[in-house]
Design a protein that fits this description.
Order of helices and strands: HEHEHEHEEEHEHEEHEEEEHEH
Oligomer: single chain
Keywords: Signal
CATH class: Alpha Beta
CATH superfamily: NAD(P)-binding Rossmann-like Domain
Helix content: 25-40%
Pfam family, one: NAD_binding_10
Number of strands: 14
Number of helices: 9
Strand order of the largest sheet: 3-2-1-4-7-10-14-12
Protein name: NAD(P)-binding domain-containing protein
InterPro entries: NAD(P)-bd_dom (IPR016040), NAD(P)-bd_dom_sf (IPR036291), SARED1-like (IPR044163)
């Protein structure tokens, strides 16, 4: 072994020794997958991605390679037994929450609006966005009071009548409703995280786009108001970039904000995420607005 190769091995060992261990939930989903794969490709990180089903695990490994099998864990965050979560979070430095209830057409048509109806076949928002996220936050707190929780939520939470809340909601014969209210359940989880004592960053993206990131100027705001643009969407990859920036810049801790992007070609492409956060000033989202479930 040459002196040079020995030095490389030593540096590699030091990198692994001080690597940040990060649990990424929803790693098989569209936004979580961006985060998980970016962390896998970056030195200084040891990411563990969770998926809910064996089919999702197989599909994810087909993309990232079978040699990464130890980096993908099968885990249902909504279960009553949280021992698996607690085991995964042991020795973790950060938790990236990218799980969310996912609406899908039911095949039925609303008689009043004549539009397709949506439900949540893999779990209502109350179960996924509240119970599941609460389980994660509790497990993180049990693992260490220093686990930095970065939560991907959604814009729209200041408006209880946002159309997203109507998805999956059913009106009962007595006039009460059940199901749906996804933004209200998300907001409840956010407040729970803020009150947990854990370091946190809460990101509210606008409409999520399956388009390339790193091509737009990003804009931050609070309470569903973002100065400088009327656009209300953002590529998932750019959401991933901001969430990873929150791991790397301590100024992102204790912050809750909205995120959108300008259209491609408008403005200056965002490259400095510290400067991006500085554009927000000292503003944080106001949780006295809107409603929680």
């Amino acid at each position: 072994m040459t002196k040079y190769s020995g030095l490389l091995l030593l540096l590699s060992g030091l990198t692994n020794c001080y690597a940040m261990r990060v649990l990424v939930t929803g790693a098989g989903g569209q936004t979580g997958k961006h985060i998980f794969q970016k962390l896998l490709a970056r030195p200084g990180y040891v990411p563990i991605g969770t998926v809910r089903s064996e089919a999702s695990r197989v599909a994810l490994l087909e993309e990232i390679g079978q040699d990464k099998a130890e980096s993908v864990a099968l885990c249902d965050i909504t279960g009553e037994d949280t021992s698996t979560l607690e085991g995964l979070l042991k020795d973790c430095d950060a938790l990236m929450i990218c799980t969310s209830a996912k609406p899908a057409p039911t095949g039925e048509i609303n008689n009043e609006t004549k539009r397709p109806m949506f439900g949540f076949p893999n779990g209502q928002p109350e179960l996924v966005d509240w119970v599941g996220q609460k389980n994660l936050i509790d497990a993180a707190k049990k693992a260490s009071k220093d686990v930095h929780v970065v939560l991907c939520s959604s814009m729209g939470g200041t408006n209880p009548n946002n159309s997203l809340n109507a998805l999956g909601r059913v009106t009962n014969a007595d006039g009460t409703t059940t199901g749906g209210d996804i933004l209200k359940w998300k907001r409840k989880a956010e407040v729970y995280l803020k009150d947990s004592g854990l370091p946190y960053t809460i990101v509210h993206p606008g409409g999520l786009l399956n388009e390339a990131g790193n091509e737009r100027e990003l804009c931050l705001g609070v309470d569903d108001k973002i100065p400088g643009t009327t656009n209300n969407s953002v590529p998932r990859e750019d959401v991933a970039n901001v969430m990873i920036a929150a791991l790397e810049d301590a100024k992102y801790r204790g912050r809750s904000f909205d995120l959108v992007s300008k259209p491609v070609g408008e403005g200056v492409i965002t490259k400095d995420y510290g400067q991006l956060l500085a554009s927000l000033g000292g503003n944080n989202c106001d949780y006295s607005l809107g409603e929680i479930a």
